Every structure is written in structure tokens, then in C-alpha cells.
Amino acid sequence: MTPSSRPVLTAILSALAEEQHGLLEQLQGAQKQTVAGRDFWLGQLHGQPVALGLSRIGKVSATLTAAVLIGHFGASRIVFTGVAGGLAQGVKVGDVVVAHDFIQHDLDASPLFPRYEVPLYGRSRFACDPALTSLLGLAADRALATSSHDALQLLMGAQVHRGLIASGDRFVSSAAESSRLQADLQDAGHTALAVEMEGAAVAQICADYGVAFAAMRTISDRADDTAHIDFPTFVAAVASRYAQRIVNELLISLPEPA
Prior knowledge:
By secondary structure, this protein is of the alpha/beta class.
């Protein structure tokens, strides 16, 4: 089968198994494949060919997983779901942030390159695919609009935000660190809504391969001194179910595969 004749494969990527629990249960015709020490599940959701994969935690692990999804499985688009810490004022626990672009908050190759700029790329931010991101944002809007009618009471009144997400290889878990990170980014002209540990790496890989990328994060904590307490509870009780709903809404809205 030539690349042009392959069916359009949507890869759903998350850092943790708990974030994909509901999606894996829904997967029709599920087949497991192990590549580079990682388990991937292929099948169909809402008539769409999909691959479920876990990036694991951190930028290096996420980079490898994204490369396998594209290079080995031929993913045509990657959608990242998961949780993040809220940074910007007004981004509260239970809200959803749909990324427009990503930045690595821990990247600093100065004085050779400006702080945050990815060496030899000439930029510090990597944009998500506009069309796929728009569909993901609409899916999140629909999911939040109906959340008050079921058991997800925690998310009543939640909002969808759209904008920049910062990624780095550390778990931001103190108010002082969160404030410093926000201030440093803003001094360089970047206002991040949320912080996590994988998205910027996947965005860069997708840009290199020319693969559409979109990402959403449910806010599990405020990246402050209670983050280590809020995070595991939120992932187990809410994040997987909410990611499942948003991904389902997205897949339903995608064009039917040829």
C-alpha cells in the first residue's frame, strides 16, 4: 500500500494509561502492537481508524512515541489529550485549554540563541494545525455544554480556553515556581495558559513531518503547592472520562474515511 492510498489514521496520544481508559474500552476490532517498547492499540472509533498510544511523561518520551505513530503506523493526524496545571488567571480546575501553539519553558540555548528559541528553527513556538484545532475546540465546547446533565458535576461551569501551552521536563508544583515561570515567559512576550510536560515536543515532531496536530488539556491543578495532591485524584476521577467525551465528539465531526 502506498502512503497516498493508506486510510487516514487518527492517533490519540496521552501521557498516562488512566487518561485513555474509556477510549480503549470503546475501541472496536482492537489489535495490540508493540514498537520501541511501547504498546499501541489499533482499531476503530465512530467509524474512524485510530491508534491509541501513551507518550509516557516528558519531552523525550513523547518525541519517540510521536515519531513511531507517524513513521511506523503512518498517522495522518495526532490529537493529544490529558491534564495540565493552570497558569493564567481565570484558568481554573475543571476548565479545558485547547492549544493554539506550544513553547518549551525550560529551553535556554542563550547566548547562542534567544531564550526559548529552538536552535536552528528560528522560532520558539510551534503552532497546532488550525483546521484540526478548530474541530477540537468545537468538540470541547459541545462536551462542556452537556456536562451538567451527567455525573461530571465537578465540571459544571467549566470553560474552554484557547491559546499557548508551555511544556517542560519538570512538574511545576509550587506557587513560587509557577509565578516565576509566568513572569519569565511574559517578559519574553509569551502568555501561557497552562503548563505540562509533553505537548511542545509532539508539536515540533508533527511540524517536521508535516502531520496535523491538535491538543487539549483539562486543568487538574493550579501548578501550585497543592498540585501533587490534586493531580492523581483528578486524573483518576475525571480526566479520562472527560477526554473520552471530547475525543468522541471530535471523531464524530471528522469527515468519513474514504
